[in-house]
Specification:
3-stranded antiparallel beta sheet; 5-stranded antiparallel beta sheet; 2 domains; 26% helix; Type Iii Antifreeze Protein Isoform Hplc 12; alpha+beta
């Protein structure tokens, strides 16, 4: 009798395991879970942006290890903040204080070179060569203005300046200048360049090195 009961129980368990309704139910649960995950993923339009774990002060040099990442939904303001992967390896300089816990605006940080370098736009008395392009290093020469429209012997007033871009000049100014360019220069050379510009000296930019490529 006991053996018969045991066999009956075993048969019942076997039928339960083979019951297709159970398998269908499990399949439906799995599909439902995957559907929920898919919907959540589809509506998640958040992006990872950097936040300040503590107060960031002006002039402070920071890199990714000094910040924390948060996934947030910013909508139209998304481009206003510093995203994951946008920090250069050398870090950035804080140009505007950012409070603890605040997201880091792109406008609140700057290139680390800003502490020792800056950009300046100068008008040239002679055109740049056709092979010169952004990124090339140039020596800026100045021929001092003398009396009666004459100029003295030129000398280098900025060595190894980097060409940022050629500036488009229109109208009457275009006729008075051969070219106008923006240069990245050490801050220590700003005074000499401004003095040359104020004096009306003739400036020329001569390539030191050229970038590789057409």
């Amino acid at each position: 009798m006991a053996a018969r009961d045991t066999n009956t129980a075993s048969a019942t368990r076997s039928r339960r395991h083979r019951d297709p309704r159970l398998l269908i139910g499990l399949a439906l649960v799995g599909v439902s879970v995957l559907g929920v995950v898919g919907v959540v993923t589809a509506v998640d339009d958040g992006v990872e942006v950097y936040a300040a774990p503590s107060l960031l002060t002006i002039g402070q040099r920071i890199d990714a290890s000094d910040l924390e990442l948060r996934r947030v939904s910013l909508g139209a303001d998304e481009s206003a903040y510093l995203h994951a992967g946008q920090l250069p390896d050398e870090g950035v300089l804080v140009s505007r204080a950012v409070g603890a816990g605040e997201l880091v605006p792109r406008s609140a940080v700057g290139d680390v070179r800003g502490a020792s370098s800056t950009t300046i736009v100068v008008a040239l008395a002679s055109e740049l060569g056709g092979t010169v392009q952004a990124g090339d290093q140039l020596d800026l020469w100045s021929a001092p203005a003398l009396e009666a429209g004459r100029f003295g012997a030129p000398t280098v007033i900025a060595s190894g300046a980097q060409l940022v871009r050629a500036v488009q000049v229109d109208g009457l100014v275009a006729g008075a200048e051969a070219a106008r360019i923006e240069l990245l220069i050490p801050r220590r050379e700003v005074a000499r360049i401004l003095h040359a510009v104020a004096n009306g000296d003739a400036l020329s930019a001569i390539p030191v090195s050229l970038t590789v490529g057409p």
